[in-house]
Amino acid sequence: MRRRRAVNKGRESMNDLDIRLVRCFVAVANERSFTRAAERLRIAQPWLSVQIRRLEEQLGFQLFDRNRNRAVIVSPEAESFLPVAQDYLVAAERAAATARRIRDQAAVYLNLGAPDFSADMPTRTAIIDGFLARHPRYEIEIHNAWTLELLKRLGEGEIDMAFTVGPHVDPHSEALVLGRYGLGLLVPVERAGRAPQPLTLSAFAGEKVAIFRRNVNPAFHDSVAPILETAGISLTYLPESSLTAMLQFGQRTGVPVLIGEWQRDVPHMPDNFSVLALDEPSLSFNLNLVRRTGDRRPAVTALWNFAAQSLRVAA
Q1: Nearest partner of 177 among 168, 185, 169, 186, judged by Cα
Q2: Could you tell me what percentage of the chain is helix, strand and coil, using 3-state DSSP and rounding each to the nearest 5?
Q3: Keywords assigned by UniProt (predicted)?
Q4: Fewest CB atoms within 10 A around its CB: which of 89, 91, 147, 312?
Q5: DSSP H or E run through 226
Q6: Cα(186)–Cα(254) distance, rounded to whole angstroms?
């Protein structure tokens, strides 16, 4: 009978039992062969032998020996350890499966960018509400900024997708046109009552109209400003472009403010102001849903596909 190989005891902590080493041991014990176990684990046999020796050092007893015919002999200690080791692997797999299930059921967050005024746009509201109703484990956080800043954040990965307005000219992203909205003029109600119908821009020739600054959305600005200037309107610029700031500017100056036509129906529009619809089809713009070109992450794809499907149903 061969002498059993000496194994150092207590070199490693038993509390740090490496599951990869245990998996190697169980494979050799079940196969009774280092060669077949290495094939089953898809590793090199010399590396497998090293792992078994590492586990023996950690456990403090010998696991295998070979007889004269080079057959693998499982030691009495290993025979006792084998059932527990098998249970250990099963428990580890159950733990991993449970963790995967919890991960898959956990909330998925989408960071979306949007201009603050778009919160009142019916199309945006319908898409977000419908998407969350269909995908209850998703959570959406909206980050407000103007289109140019949103595209910058999208490109830098700070947000996942964005609602933008106006022409889409960014070469690093792709846009889905969700709808087209008209522009109107915010004026005091007493002036609204005197306005001719249908209302055209010529009624404001020689006057000032306040619009947003070019730097917040150059493409959108350049699609609107020349139309106003051609009608003989002088442009002045808003210091801020939220609805509250527009109302304050109009109250303070009396200057008509270019505003989204849909905003005449918002509940927080004060009674002393009115939004006049303009009979100017060219004064309209796109609401877009934008993602980085080639971004096919599941959450991004889910919202993109839902929006596209909603457009097909509406059509």
Answers
A1: 168
A2: 50, 20, 30
A3: DNA-binding, Transcription, Transcription regulation
A4: 312
A5: helix 218-230
A6: 10
Question: In 235-297, which ranges are continuous DSSP H helix?
Answer: 243-253
- 237 Cβ partners below 8 Å, 6+ apart? 210, 211, 212, 213
What is the overall mean pLDDT for the chain? 89
In terms of residue numbers, what domain contains 184?
108-309
Angle at 179 between CA 236 and CA 250, to 5 degrees: 25
- Is there a contact between 278 and 182 (Cβ–Cβ < 8 Å)? yes
Number of structural domains in the chain:
2
The answer to whether the pTM exceeds 0.70 is: no
Percent of the chain with pLDDT over 70: 93
Q: Which H helix or E strand runs over 273? A: strand 273-277
How many Å apart are CA 10 and CA 57, to the nearest integer?
A: 8
Residue 314 is assigned to a structural domain of this protein: no
Residue 7 lies in a domain: no
pLDDT category at 2 given cuts 50, 70, 90 is very low
Give dist(CA 20, CA 31) in Å, integer. 17
275 and 180 co-located in one domain: yes
Q: In this structure, what token pair is assigned to residue 92?
A: 């580890």
Q: Is 229 helix (H, G, I), strand (E, B) or coil?
A: helix
- The CATH number that applies at residue 76 is 1.10.10.10
